[in-house]
């Protein structure tokens, strides 16, 4: 075998999981604010340099992978081996918006009821809420700049208010939350002077974090319990002999009895047939400004670090960070080859100017993009897709994995340890079925649609823009 490549290979801004066989080997982090401000990464075990035999191998060292490893060791006495293609937490966990919501997947609770009925929706709510509370507790134990200030969902047009009011009423009356509507006067007086907002829905369940500091914290805890983390060790081949999985990396093969895939939006098409064409990777662009001056803070009336999202289909997510920098992100680019086009940066700087006019033309200190793992039915899966094969995965959060990924790791650890049998919670839709293939209008599902997904995505993005802006 060839030795692993240099652990400091340059970051590839055009990396595309639908085209590249793997995320690379030992590539540098994306140039994010989180990487610049996270401090020294935890120690790891370096690239794999020989063949090894393990009980459990986990592919991916983001929040899901590290939480899975942590809970396997902490609650089940199993020390897993984690394989990371590049640097620790190189993917979603070093690029996300850090908005920990009481959610997972793209569907709202009203949509859960439409799809599965009220009884299942209530059970799913209890599970997602439990995951959020677990995440909230972890943020008090890990130094991650956590701000437990809730979530503001802003109507960017007057006609969006009715939908927010209906969802807030459902959250209160059906699910028992204290979700409420907020007028523009209260919003601008107590939170920030966001000029597009026509009103907002406020939910108290929301914790903003520094996602890389948080994942580094999970990693430190896991390694203290005996977990091994091999960086610069992408899985470049996978075959199974007599029930043992042979995971080939550049300089060594891991022979594992059980495998968990926690690769999020960085799941390559060649990794496993069980995942091919079942995840749609979606780019999310993000920027962080220079620190705001006292005059700019006064002009925008930022009084809180509570995070915000708006009601566009391709929504903007934003907040004032510790140190008074503004962070904002949204969907824009479609392919890796297109990601560097200045039009995507302009989308975000134009949004800053609309939402906060005093910050027009403010200097951008950090600009990056990352891949979101979107399932074709908009909900995640934490499952064993084939009972005859000891392979599990936890993916498909659709941009809402900041809080739920740690709970997904906890549930995935239960499944890997064989402690899921007979538990009613594992009958929920996110646990009992595999990720679906692409579909047309939710009516016909087929892998044959996979080659046409990006054609459809480009058309949808144009339609979304017309619907949201015209």
From TrEMBL:
User: For the FAD dependent oxidoreductase domain, which residue ranges apply?
Assistant: 55-415
What InterPro entries does the database record attribute to this sequence?
FAD-dep_OxRdtase, FAD/NAD-bd_sf
Gene3D superfamilies, per this entry?
A: D-Amino Acid Oxidase, subunit A, domain 2 (3.30.9.10), FAD/NAD(P)-binding domain (3.50.50.60)
Alphabetized SUPFAM superfamilies for the sequence = FAD/NAD(P)-binding domain
Enumerate the residue ranges of region (Disordered). Answer: 1-22
Q: Keywords, A to Z? A: Oxidoreductase
Asked if the keyword Oxidoreductase belongs to this entry, the reply reads yes
An example of a GO molecular function for this protein is:
oxidoreductase activity
Query: Can you quote a single GO CC term?
Result: cytoplasm
Q: What is this protein called?
A: FAD-dependent oxidoreductase
| Protein's organism | Variovorax paradoxus
């Amino acid at each position: 075998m060839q030795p692993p490549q240099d652990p400091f290979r340059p970051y590839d801004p055009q990396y595309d999981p639908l085209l590249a066989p793997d995320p690379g080997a030992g590539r540098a982090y994306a140039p994010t604010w989180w990487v610049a401000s996270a401090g020294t990464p935890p120690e790891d075990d370096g690239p794999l340099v020989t063949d090894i035999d393990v009980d459990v191998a986990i592919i991916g060292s983001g929040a899901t992978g590290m939480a899975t490893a942590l809970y396997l060791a902490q609650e089940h006495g199993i020390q897993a081996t984690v394989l990371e293609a590049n640097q620790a937490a190189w993917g979603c966990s070093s690029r996300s918006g850090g908005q920990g919501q009481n959610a997972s997947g793209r569907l709202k609770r009203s949509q859960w009821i439409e799809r599965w009925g009220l009884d299942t929706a209530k059970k799913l709510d209890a599970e997602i809420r439990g995951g959020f509370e677990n995440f909230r507790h972890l943020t008090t134990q890990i130094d991650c700049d956590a701000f437990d200030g809730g979530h503001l969902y802003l109507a960017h047009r007057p006609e969006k208010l009715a939908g927010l009011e209906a969802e807030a009423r459902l959250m209160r009356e059906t699910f028992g939350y204290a979700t409420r509507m907020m007028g523009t006067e209260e919003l601008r007086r107590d939170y920030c002077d966001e000029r597009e907002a026509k009103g907002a829905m406020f939910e108290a369940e929301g914790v903003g974090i520094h996602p890389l500091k948080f994942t580094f914290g999970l990693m430190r805890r896991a390694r203290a319990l005996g977990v091994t983390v091999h960086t610069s060790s992408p899985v470049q081949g996978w075959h199974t002999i007599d029930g043992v999985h042979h995971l080939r990396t550049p300089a060594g093969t891991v022979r594992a009895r059980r495998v968990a895939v926690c690769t999020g939006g960085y799941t390559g098409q060649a990794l496993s047939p069980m995942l091919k064409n079942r995840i749609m990777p979606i780019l999310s662009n993000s920027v962080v400004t220079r620190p705001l001056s006292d005059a700019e803070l006064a002009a925008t009336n930022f009084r809180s670090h509570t995070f915000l999202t708006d009601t566009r289909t391709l929504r903007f997510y934003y907040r004032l960070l510790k140190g008074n920098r503004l962070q904002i992100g949204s969907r824009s680019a479609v392919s890796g080859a297109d990601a560097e086009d200045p039009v995507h940066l302009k989308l975000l700087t134009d949004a800053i100017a609309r939402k906060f006019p005093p910050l027009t033309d403010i200097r951008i200190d950090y600009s990056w993009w990352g891949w979101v793992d979107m399932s074709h039915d908009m909900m995640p899966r934490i499952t064993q897709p084939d009972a005859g094969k000891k392979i599990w995965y936890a993916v498909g959060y659709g941009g809402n994995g900041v809080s739920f990924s740690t709970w997904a790791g906890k549930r995935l650890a239960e499944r890997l340890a064989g402690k899921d049998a007979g538990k009613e919670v594992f009958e929920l839709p996110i646990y009992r079925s595999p990720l679906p293939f692409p579909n047309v209008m939710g009516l016909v599902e087929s892998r044959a649609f996979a080659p046409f997904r990006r054609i459809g995505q480009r058309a949808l993005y144009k339609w979304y823009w017309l619907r949201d802006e015209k």
